[in-house]
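Regression check, FE2/S2 (inorganic) cluster case 182:
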Amino acid sequence: MALTRRKLLLNIVAGFGAAGLLALIFPFLRGMLPTLKNVEARVVDIAAMRDGEMKTVRWKGKNVLIVKRNPESINKRPSQLKSLTDPFSINSLQPEFAQGHGRSSRENFLLVYSYCTLLSCELKRLEIIGEEGSIFEGFFCPCDGSRYDTSGRVIKGSAAQYNLSIPNYEHISESRIRLTGA
Ligand code: FES
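Current build output:
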């Protein structure tokens, strides 16, 4: 009997000890969280990108297109909104910061997943070649010809109905973007 009580007391003391230890190390664990989050990230160097240039990077098993938009590719003209199926990207998948017309964190850079929203075919870039080089004009889908504007918004008359999905990312400096989350 005495032995059982002693055992019980020892268990209680051990329990308090474990709880105390947890309380002690919790602030350290919390401090480590940002580091743990960074494991799920990819940093992309964009320093060398020229106006109009597009690069493809792999992120979580999918291709992401990064475009450095030419100044004339940044769509600010309200008249063009009539030609879009979902001009305000109400039905699209995008981070909160990408809900404006540019659908991006900074207006000269656009990041989109590289897949048509109809049947996920890989997109091609639309461009015109001007005197100063290639001007980015949006995207088209080689499968059924759906077209997207320079913010990845689907153009009316396309078979696809949804704007391109946008990954979560942040500009961590003038020359680097970090892809994070989904
Ligand atoms: S998958 Fe893009 S239009 Fe068919």
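Comparison notes: The radius of gyration is 25 Å. The CA atoms of residues 18 and 24 lie 10 Å apart. No diff flagged against the previous build.
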